[in-house]
Structures are given as structure tokens and as C-alpha cells.
Amino acid sequence: MKIISTKKLTYSEREQLMLQGISLIEHNFISIELVDFSVDTLADYLIFTSQNAVRSVLKNSQIEKIKQKKVLCVGEKTKQMLIEQGWQVIENAPYAQMLGTIIFQKYSEKSFTFFCGNLRSDTLLDLCRNVGINCTEIIVYHTQYTPLFIQEKTEGILFFSPSAIHSFLLKNTISNEKLFCIGETTAQALQVYGKNCIIANKPTIDSVIESVIQYFNENKNVRK
């Protein structure tokens, strides 16, 4: 049995699949370019929703000033990276919508600087603006599509971001493959194309892999 991963996996991640008899076609369907940016003023708190944003901000000449601000973030790995680099993380949520709810409930009188990419989801900004919360975005990295046509027949596709979905569909189509997504936002992007998927229990790569293994083990008849 063969599946596609729209992101190159680590050796240990690939090994989990191979031990289950699942072979893999891998390609990074997006690439990330960190960009220079200026910081004139910072809000009360900072927001990060990706590790890429953290990496970019760490390269900024004003990093020591930026580190003085407390942070709200999305994702455990993003949180870990921020803490390792010396930030104080006061709130963390698995999804942007959940973080937005926390902001509305507990910090509606505060202002926020949101470090993000050029193709970031509208979820968090829209929520803040709709309820009058001051949230200013600063673009700190660019996401670029790197599509590749895949000719081989496969039985599953792994998606880790909406951008990777859009890139994949530039040169490929989805037919009867089983689709697996890392989270709600990615799943919603698939629904725009009329496709449903299995959403990982946690927004992590390991959880996506677990959902793949569980599905194909429970549906042996899918195997060739």
C-alpha cells in the first residue's frame, strides 16, 4: 500500500508507517522564505501560530526588545520553541479559533501583535476585529507553492496545511484516496473542494501518522 505525504517526514516518522507495510511518496508541496521586517511599536502581547514565525522573529535585529513581551500561541511545538528561546508563554491552544476564544474571554481590553505568514488563516484576525480587539499583523515569512505531479496510484494523502492542499491540487486531482489532515483549519480547506477527511486527534505529525495506521489496520480490505 502506498500513500502521499505533502510534507517530507523524518526517518522515525517514516519508519512508523513502513513497519505497518505502508510505503510513502514524499514531497514538500510548500516552501518557507523568512523575510526581513521592521518593528516600530509592539502591542501588549504577542501572538505566534507557527514555528516558522518564531524562526523569522529570532533573526530580527530587535529580538531582545521583542522577547520582553509575553506571548500567546498555537501548538505545543510552537510553545516549546518559544519557551526554549526565553519567551514567557501565558496562553496556548491547539487551534487558532480556540486561542481567539481565550483572547476574547480574558484579554479583550489588551492589544496584540500577530507575527504570521503571508498566507495565514483569517480565523484569528477576523475574530479579533469582529469584537473590536486591537490586533495588528506583521508578515514575517512567505509561503510559496512548490507543486509536483504524482503519477503513481496511491490510497491515501496526508495534508498538514491549507497551503499544501492548494499546492497539491495545482497539478494533481483527488479521486478515491483516503485523506488525512493535521487539524480543523486544514480540513476546512479540503471541504472547499468538496472533500472530507480524517482529522488527527491532536494537531501533530505523529497524531496524523497514528490516524493513518489506525484507519488502514481497521480496513484491511483497502490493502492491495
TrEMBL record:
Q: Which UniProt keywords apply?
A: Methyltransferase, Transferase
Q: Name one Pfam family in it.
A: HEM4
The terms describing its cellular component in GO are: cytosol
Q: Which CDD domains match?
A: HemD
Q: Which GO terms describe its biological process?
A: methylation; uroporphyrinogen III biosynthetic process
Q: Which Gene3D superfamilies does the protein's record reference?
A: 3.40.50.10090
Annotated ranges, domain Tetrapyrrole biosynthesis uroporphyrinogen III synthase:
21-210
The protein's matches in InterPro entries, at most eight in alphabetical order, are given as: 4pyrrol_syn_uPrphyn_synt_sf, 4pyrrol_synth_uPrphyn_synth, UROS/Hem4
TM regions (residue ranges): none
User: Care to name a GO molecular-function term for this sequence?
Assistant: uroporphyrinogen-III synthase activity
The UniProt entry, under PANTHER family, shows: UROPORPHYRINOGEN III SYNTHASE, UROPORPHYRINOGEN-III SYNTHASE
The name on file for this protein is Uroporphyrinogen III methyltransferase
Lineage in the entry? Bacteria, Pseudomonadati, Bacteroidota, Flavobacteriia, Flavobacteriales
